[in-house]
């Protein structure tokens, strides 16, 4: 038996996608200017305070922004599967996810590498051509599309193999008790995965250490679509978790300071049988939950949102795809002032937002682009 799911998209969820896309661009800009993390081009932070602020920004982002992308993707995947059927669903996924992965991996990824690492005496264009000619695949931020393609195929396969399984959750799960259980499973899952693959390491082009939340949130989104659970988050549920998130954010940093991290002490959170790794794995879900619930509630009830949100929403995916060479290119252009890391984060971050969405607006006008972007 198949479920009948309304196919209309909800505007407030599209507005959240705009915000998440902007955070991705700013996140990578922050890493470029000294925050902890991996990126094509990195400069040393101009001071300890700048480094700590940028790292805090990225640490909080990391708890929720990609997971929320997967949550929304799952939410709309169910509707797409119900309305299109398995064959068309798979065709669409291969087109919208597979093609951008290939284009970025073989063209835009090498371009971003060339912008960041062109050797002295060569031009960016010659080095870019060299990287492409040797089939230098670089997946970059498009790991998200690659992972989402895998999740989509897994979801479709489960739907076909288990046609009688009810893919819908009751509104009863929107309770504090169920949320606590979900977050504990999330944290324990992250801790367990990081015993195998610590954060910062890859397996099959993916940072598996972060995938406990991605898997849980994607399939929760799939199961939440029937009852439109994301459209039923209210103040009574969201506000307490918003406070919990706010109070949880500084706790990990206080723990690190008390452990002597600022004095050179060991405080490794990437993985392993250590208390810092366990604390980090449990810290993430309790920070992320309140932020996600607050976004779902506040964006839904906001009155008279700006028309700009509606103009930007169709450009999110293209902006996401194109932002890496833009961020890195601007970073190279502004390298003479790289010591002013916090100021450049705002300047280059803002310019990257404008250019990424601006280029996206041009890309979506290309013939056939709408089928992919």
From TrEMBL:
Sequence intervals crossing the membrane: 16-35, 47-73, 94-116, 142-162, 174-196, 208-225, 237-258, 278-297, 317-337, 343-364
Protein name in UniProt: Acyltransferase
Keywords, ordered alphabetically: Acyltransferase, Membrane, Transferase, Transmembrane, Transmembrane helix
Domain Acyltransferase: start-end pairs: 12-359
InterPro entries, per the entry: Acyl_transf_3_dom (IPR002656), Glucan_succinyl_AcylTrfase (IPR050623)
Keyword Acyltransferase assigned: yes
Species, as recorded: Undibacterium flavidum
Molecular function GO labels: acyltransferase activity
